[in-house]
DNA sequence: TCCCATGACCAAAACGTTTTGGTCTATCGT
DNA sequence: ACGATAGACCAAAACGTTTTGGTCATGGGA
């Protein structure tokens, strides 16, 4: 009836050693005879022993728990419009899976403002997605001496090298080359008004690509709220130029659909009269009419990589960082005339 | 330098009582003089005391942590296609926020298979989203005696009354009435092939509505993978009927866009020749061309309600359940001829 | 031979709570 | 006036680890 918990004492008894030795053997801490260690590990396995997270946390101060911080808009209303929820969901689930495999649960963390809030969470470290320039949340962690891995860099923190990122330059180049191959001669960009590395680097890569081709960059910066509507407008401005672009690289997913609508309203057909591609993949771009070519950043890979990186740090290893996660170009009808 | 933690002992000293009394006063457990309780609470406040989660967990066996279980598809590939990621993201974030406010962190939990995995998580309870019929994950929690709140009921568990749900019958009726008001006389439904309560109840409500109007129900069941493509096909079948429907209630978000495409391919214009509405709201329906009328289930409210319900149970209250969360009908161009 | 590392091991303390099992005083019913 | 009951309080045990500060051989260098 009474399913008593298997404690370290039970393991010690089974292996015929002290609890100290069990602890050392299992955590690779002190010095224990290899044979003894084997015996302890076997005994622990037989009994199905798992150290109590609470006891461990109490004594050592480490909980093993990881905080996941998604981009925190100021208002919830803004969130609705702004986030590529699709992308972050994939990211979060993948990170949770990878962390859990390594016995580190992942906390979904609401926007944090103060050190007290962070302290109360009782986490050992955090994954911070798309930090703004000199993101205050990063500072919060540092204040408590907790390790952080960011997904994409913090542009205001060049010294912080613990991050996972997409190869935004290469991805952008590849996409733009694809557009050129498909016949585009005047490629414009719908960039985002943000201080995220992803956004800044993508825009910069676009400009570099233009320069390398002796082409003049055509950039419209688009707002972060009311994504589709903003893109409809700024995309429309691009299309109304005397020298109309024949391809548009719309950074966000909703930008792309906004541009397609603007084109359609002007009697332009995608991809016949205009090629459209997006810098991020989602159900929206996959299922749009026509389906839209995108850079799939593989959020599953990014999330898993970030979790791995953080866990390795937590466990005392010195993993190589930063990590660059390759993306996949998803070529769809919107760029195939 | 040494920022020593404020412990219960410090509070006891400050209030001039024993640690037992502090514990009792703060947790409302034993019997303490109201004046003393005040004094203790004041002292704790002054010192900024927060009970150590680890210590509490160790002694009492309760961690205060909540597990969040999203619908677990068998393969990750299926997930990509199937989930309304948007909706679940909102749900999860809202639940995390509401739980955190009440000092209960929320764990994002990967698909669980065994009791051992669940035990290792060390949670006090769980929120289970969209359980399938007799969902095995619900059983996992029960096996450990942990409370669960589901979002939408488990159709195979009528006795389990701890759930939060949308008023699917009323929502569906309201939406269908709106279609009728907009001039529809033959409303068809694109239902989903699933054993979720949301899906089953919505379909049933549709049939009931038809019956109450003496109208024959027209239902096409659509697959859960390749949502948009499946809906394009089954929606097309509806449109190719000799007696073509003049409105389609497409349950899932991607069903609606699929139907719109099928209509467009047949030279039908939405909303002129066909009204289209969806049972779930998302960025996709908001930004579609034309924007699609939907039932916004208000996942923020559902998530927060579920978290509240579970937390109240965890804290020993006997909250009223089940909870019905009202939805909002989002009327958009797709149903305004 | 003696001394000093070093390796293998262990008993006990410590982490910060909650819970158990009390003591003591005041009040109530008879 | 007496025992019983309830209220207010407390000391100590308990939760299951990790860490501290050892002991005791064993072997190598002087």
UniProtKB/TrEMBL annotation, chains A, B:
InterPro entries: HTH_LacI, LacI/GalR-like_sensor, Lambda_DNA-bd_dom_sf, Peripla_BP_I. Gene3D superfamilies: 3.40.50.2300, lambda repressor-like DNA-binding domains (1.10.260.40). Keywords: DNA-binding, Transcription, Transcription regulation. Residues 6-60 form the HTH lacI-type domain. One of its GO terms (molecular function) is DNA-binding transcription factor activity. This is Transcriptional regulator. It comes from Patulibacter medicamentivorans.
